[in-house]
C-alpha cells in the first residue's frame, strides 16, 4: 500500500449541538454516520468537545473501549460505577477502560467557565477485561516542547498511563512559536491540532481543529506558528488486523 497523507479540515467535521454542548466529530459518531469515515487505524472517536458551566454528560454506559480524555481548558469531573472519581485538567493524562461494562458521568463543575476537551476511543486487544481507571500528571513534561507519550500499550514503551492495546500510543506536545517536533514513523498515524496553528512539512499550514491521517508515516516535522497543542496517535495495526 503506498504512503498517503490525507488532510481533514476542521470545518468539514460533523457537529452535535445542544444548549450546553458543542461537539465536533472527526469520525462517524452518534447520529452522524458516514460509512466512509468510521475510523483511521485503530482510532474510532476523536471528539472535540466544549461543555458549558454546570453541565455535562449524565451517567451512561460503555463497554469494550479504551477512552482517553485530554482537557485543553477548564476542568472535567469523572465518576464511574467502579468507584473511581477524578477531576481532569490540562496536563493530566487520563484513561478509562470500559471493559466488561461500566457506567460513568462527565461534568463541568464550574458555575462560570466552560470546559474544552478532546475525547478519543480505541478498541482494546481483548473483550470483557475488568473495567479500570488511570490518571497521571504530566504537565511538567509537556513544558519541554517535545512529544510526550500520554498513553501506550506498545511493548517496551514508557508512558504516563497504560492502554490495553499493544499496537497504539497517544503522544501530546505543547509548542511555542518556532518549536518543531518530528512525528513518529508508523503504519498509521493521526495528527490533530487541538489548538493553535502549525505547518506540516510537505503539506503546509494546519489550523486548530484540522487533522491529518497518514499511512506509512515517514517522520515529517511539524512547526508551530503560534502557541499550539498537538495530539498524535501512533498505530501499528488497523481495525480488523
From TrEMBL:
Under the heading InterPro entries, the entry gives: Pirin, Pirin_N_dom, Quercetinase_C, RmlC-like_jellyroll, RmlC_Cupin_sf
In which domain of life is the source organism classified?
Answer: Bacteria
Name the family: Belongs to the pirin family.
Q: Name one Pfam family in it.
A: Pirin
User: To which species is this protein native?
Assistant: Mycobacterium heidelbergense
Using the record, list the residue span of the signal peptide; answer none if the entry has no such feature: none
What is the official name of this protein in its record?
A: Quercetin 2,3-dioxygenase
Sorted alphabetically, the keyword list is: Dioxygenase, Iron, Metal-binding, Oxidoreductase
